[in-house]
Write a structure and sequence with these properties.
Blueprint lengths: L4 H18 L5 E7 L3 H9 L6 E9 L9 E5 L9 E9 L3 H11 L5 E9 L12 E5 L5 E2 L16 E2 L25
Parallel strand pairs: 1-2, 1-4, 4-5, 5-6
Antiparallel strand pairs: 2-3, 7-8
Helix pairs in contact: 1-2
The structure holds inosinic acid and magnesium ion.
Length: 188
């Protein structure tokens, strides 16, 4: 267990309030990245008190190798985002290559703005510096599953976030972590 269900609920609710304040009165298009962010996005939207639309983009890392930086689009957006404020909702930013690719891809469609909201940030493995204005938790360099995230398409339905130990090869940290404090949420 890395992050129990109640901590996820608390933090997602805080993020929902922050986003609602930031985009109050603005035209907000939430874009959730499938499959990993579907649970987070569903909870985040219900924690938001402002009007917004939701659309999905499906991506798959090439040959199932996360971190390769090669991304295949399996489902594109249904609606145009031109002129709109986009919130890109991701499960986890690891090397940052996927999110960087998505940012560039979305910016080509001429939105008014694009901001990243990521539930988890594995910043120790970052290869590309990315601003993450809305971030749930900073986590150590461990492989996690649950709350939408998978290992070989399994464990997405766990209600908490757990560390997956692969043959004991990776020394896992088992303590429960705390969320980012408000004063450091803007660093990345
Ligand atoms: P990046 O391109 O290295 O930032 O990888 C981001 C993507 O890799 C995420 O959206 C996840 O789909 C996947 N990923 C990275 N780390 C993990 C993990 O610990 N568990 C499950 N999926 C992960
Ligand atoms: Mg993902």
């Amino acid at each position: 267990m890395l992050i129990p269900q109640n901590r996820l609920q608390e933090r997602v609710s805080e993020l929902g309030q922050e986003i609602s304040q930031a985009f109050d009165g603005k035209d907000l298009a939430v874009v959730a990245i499938l499959k990993g962010s579907f649970v987070f996005a569903a909870d985040l939207l219900r924690a938001m008190s402002i009007q917004c639309s939701i659309d999905f983009m499906g991506i798959s890392s090439y040959a199932g190798q996360p971190g390769s930086g090669v991304v295949r689009i399996t489902k594109d957006l249904d609606e145009s985002i031109a002129g709109r404020n986009v919130l890109l909702v991701e499960d986890i930013i690891d090397t940052g290559l996927t999110a960087n690719y998505l940012l560039h891809n979305l910016k080509q469609r001429k939105p008014a703005s694009v901001d990243i909201c990521a539930l988890l940030d594995k910043s120790a493995r970052r290869l590309i510096d990315l601003p993450i204005p809305y971030r749930g938790f900073e986590i150590p360099d461990v492989f996690v599953v649950g709350y939408g995230m998978d290992y070989q398409q399994l464990y997405r339905n766990l209600p908490h976030i757990a560390i997956l130990r692969l043959n004991g090869g990776q020394k896992a940290r088992s303590e429960t972590i705390e969320s980012d404090q408000a004063d450091n949420k803007n660093e990345s």
